[in-house]
Amino acid sequence: MKKSAVITSLLFLGLALGAFFESLRLPFGRVSAPAAGFFPAVLAALLAVTSLLAFAETLRGGGEGLVQRDRLIWKKILWTVASLLAFGFLFESLGYLVTTFLFVTCSLRVVERQGWGPAVAVGLCASLVSYIIFGLLLGAPLPAGFVRF
Amino acid sequence: MSTLTNLGLGFSVALEPANLLFCFIGVFVGTFIGVLPGLGPIAAIALLLPLTFKMAPATAIIMLAGIYYGAMYGGSTTSILVNIPGEAASVVTCLDGYQMARQGRAGPALGIAALGSFIAGTFGLVGLMFFAPVLGAAALRFGPPEYFTLTFLGLTLVSYLSRGSMLKALLMAIFGLLLGTIGMDPISGQERFTYGSLTLGDGLGLVPVAMGLFGIAEVLDNLGKNLRGDVYEREIKGLLPSRKDWKESFWPIVRGSIVGFFIGILPGPSGAMSSFASYAMEKRLSRHREKFGSGAIEGVAGPESANNAASAGAFIPLLSLGFPSNVVMALLVGALLIHGVQPGPLFIKNYPELFWGVVASMYVGNAMLLLLNLPLIGIWVRLLKVPYAILYPLILLFCLIGAYSLNNNIVEIFIMVISGIIGLLLRRGGFEGAPFLLALVLGPLMESSLRQSLLISRGSFAIFFTRPVSAVLMLLSLTFLLTSLVPALKTKREKLAAEMGG
């Protein structure tokens, strides 16, 4: 927990420095007439200072604000993130019905180790019911993919 | 026009069939979301926001507002029956509500929570009706310095009340402001940090980021955990509280309504804050303090009333100043802007049907919730028995649909997923999402008001201290910042923030 706070503070510091140098490429103006780069540059500098202070606070105090949480189950998280990204890549080409069915079924079967029967049944129901709600009743424009109605 | 005439106009809008239907959908979905652990009103509003694009502005806001106060109602059900709060504002209800359920008094606990919420919600609306126009009229005299100090105070207060380290909360607020600069410069129109992306040209979308930080991150954090708890299985009887219950709950409801309403106006997590404040007050005033924590009905009636009054109070800065005091209100600002409606001091004058229509719909919505919640408790109990392993793919699916249908843009899905991963890592490191998201929304207003103030004052920061309203707001902000540095006061702040539950 403390380790993740230290790493996050350092990542913020890196981000702040990057943002600061990027904002210098924008016109800064003057304090009496600030231009487009003024606000981001000031914020990036402030972010650098606060991330350094947060880094020091974590090292010194060792975990103020760190709530003891359960351990993460990284295997499940990685599978879920992978399926979310796959959904994004396949959504427009495969279409709404197929992608949602695959997403829910895979989440239940692969991540949660449910049996094929319940996984396919829930996947089918979720795909059809959500299509009826979002696509037909609420009129959300959903990609048809290769399954055309 | 008098308030009553305005209210008549509001009811003529709220009682239109389409508005009634979407008010019902809003409160129903809100209650449903409030009951489900692991998905709060923020994710629900973000999810349904794209679906309101084709609606009239009043219908859209009526539905989204319904989700917000519906979730406040629904959150109490899980607190009482499962000892798991549906959302932050219901944390304190677990203390006595669940104990009442264990003693076979789940019915009166649920009943007083619903009735107290109804009474307090109605009280909050009366306050909203009278305070919002007054504040709106006063805000007409606000200039850039006042708006800058108002946003500064909002972010300071949200950071001050965040769980854990205020430094980390401030860091998150600055990070949110920085990401808020992505897109077009509000004054010169120059593109910043877009790197040729058309999606980023309009700025980093609030909705995919909110769904990522509060929806996806929450689900990823909960994967593999048992969120079911022990659902109260026995038959729930006697939902209507007895005469004795009413006697014990009357003053807690009254006090909760007043305290909750005023806390609701303040920036910050007003729902959680008001319920904790009410609980602490009732415990202090009670003649039998020892009963608190072991099933005192006052411990349910007060906080549940307070968080509903707070949800009405939170609309005041939004509708009169155009200033969102919490993340839900920030999403509503987004919804208003999408419909071409500019919230701010002229809002009530320019859009009377919208303002009074939304206010009237809240009366209708509160009545619907009362009628809806008591008979539907059985369904909510059954819903709580569905394993989380089945529920979360559906929650994720709704988030994916919501992110995509915002602009029919696949990039928004990736922004949401990346925000979810970042959100998960940040919450593990003790960095809170709320200051970040509020800053992301307030960033453009803060920047333009700061730059305009500096232009007016020719670069002098004294402008923030020489105008009365701005000076008061600035001094308040600095007081909060400085008190977090004084060791003795710092400990007090941490205690308070820990009680608020973030």
> What is Rg of chain A?
24 Å
- Which structural category fits the helices and strands of chain A? mainly alpha
Rounded mean pLDDT score of chain A: 85
**N-to-C series of helices and strands of chain B:** HHHHHHHHEEHHHHHHHHHHHHHHH
- Give the domain tally of chain A: 2
Total helical segments of chain A: 5
- Helix content class of chain A: over 70%
How large a portion of the residues of chain A is in β-strands, by DSSP E? under 5%
Unreliable stretches covering 5 or more consecutive residues of chain B = none
Give me the side-by-side strand order of the main sheet of chain B. Answer: 1-2
Q: Report the strand count of chain B.
A: 2
Radius of gyration over C-alpha positions of chain B, nearest whole angstrom: 22 Å
Going by helix content, strand content and strand pairing, the class of chain B is: mainly alpha
Strand content of chain B: under 5%
Largest sheet of chain B: 2 strands, antiparallel
How far apart are the first and last residues' alpha carbons of chain B, in Å?
41 Å
**Inertia-based shape of chain A:** flat
Shape of chain B: globular
Give a quick precis of the structure:
Chain A is mainly α. Chain A has five helices and two strands, in the order H-E-E-H-H-H-H.
